[in-house]
């Protein structure tokens, strides 16, 4: 992954829900050009953070055998900009419908929504794209299960 856009996973429930945090640092290289002298996190990067969080939910729910890949955005709404210094709280809920499973994502800073999205995709074998043991290790770091404290 070029950008790992989830800094910490704070909560998860197998096949149901996952929550995480994205800290937006002024040093993020995507802020350099978006926009010069008025940096904001690109909305598509907020969307990608939610998609990545869906991947983590899929991975932990399948004992790191599967990963989620986005194929369809059903609806997406951006509410306002996420700025350097913001801590974006990310929530993904897996919703089961007659069409299969859909993810509903929300990104917020404090009590202010930044993005709300419903999307679906495919579950692929994790080993096709990443080493499963390394991904499990990253997950353990992100959830503080493998902490030095």
Description of the molecule:
With 149 residues, the chain is α+β, with helices and mostly antiparallel strands. It has a single domain, classed as Hotdog Thioesterase (Thiol Ester Dehydrase, Chain A, Roll). Helix content is 20%, strand content 41%. It has helices spanning 43-61, 132-142; strands at 8-13, 17-23, 66-78, 87-97, 100-109, 112-125. The chain has a 6-stranded antiparallel β-sheet. The mean pLDDT is 93.
If you average the pLDDT, what whole number results? Answer: 93
Instruction: Name the poorly predicted regions.
Output: none
CATH architecture: Roll
Count of separate DSSP helical elements: 2
The helicity comes to: 10-25%
What is the count of distinct domains? 1
Q: CATH top level?
A: Alpha Beta
SSE succession = EEHEEEEH
Q: Can you say what the CATH homologous superfamily is? A: Hotdog Thioesterase
SS class = alpha+beta
Radius of gyration: 15 Å
Arrangement of strands in the largest sheet: 1-2-4-5-6-3
**Quick one: overall form?**
globular
What is the CATH topology classification name? Thiol Ester Dehydrase, Chain A
User: What is the distance, rounded to the nearest whole angstrom, between the alpha carbons of the first and last residues?
Assistant: 27 Å
- How many β-strand stretches? 6
Task: Work out the strand percent.
Answer: 35-45%
How is the biggest beta sheet arranged? 6 strands, antiparallel
């Amino acid at each position: 992954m070029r950008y790992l856009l989830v800094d910490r996973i704070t909560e998860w429930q197998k096949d149901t829900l996952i929550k995480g945090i994205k800290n937006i640092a002024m040093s993020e290289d995507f802020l350099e050009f978006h926009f010069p002298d008025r940096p904001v996190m690109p909305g598509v990067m907020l969307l990608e953070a939610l998609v990545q969080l869906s991947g983590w939910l899929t991975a932990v729910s399948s004992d790191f055998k599967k990963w989620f890949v986005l194929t369809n955005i059903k609806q997406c709404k951006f509410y306002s900009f996420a700025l350097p210094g913001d801590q974006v709280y990310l929530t993904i809920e897996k919703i089961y419908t007659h069409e299969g499973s859909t993810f509903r994502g929300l990104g917020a800073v404090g009590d202010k929504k930044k993005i709300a999205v419903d999307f679906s995709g495919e579950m692929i074998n994790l080993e096709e794209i990443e080493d499963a043991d390394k991904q499990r290790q990253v997950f353990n770091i992100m959830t503080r299960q493998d902490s030095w404290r």
